[in-house]
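Chapter review: from sequence to fold.
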Amino acid sequence: MASADGSDDAGYNESLAVRAAPYRGPRSYHALVTLTVTGPQGGIASVSGVPAEPVTITSTGGTFTIDQTGNDGRTLDATVTWTCP
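The token string follows.
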């Protein structure tokens, strides 16, 4: 499981969680992804699901692309990349 809170850019914040089970080291996984975007007035969009393209996890981070509609009817289309220390 990897999770992170993104940077606050102009009042917007992104948070993500990636759950790859069973985890077997760096490679591509069909993993459960949760991505939430909040803004100055609160929640903007939140989606959770398994992206069509696998999540790539490396020894220093990972990346995934998601294009899904959340329960609130809003579509979130994003490419997310993260790094680990």
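Two observations follow directly from the output. The CA atoms of residues 26 and 58 lie 5 Å apart. The beta strands are 2-5, 13-19, 27-29, 32-39, 42-49, 55-58, 61-69, 75-83.
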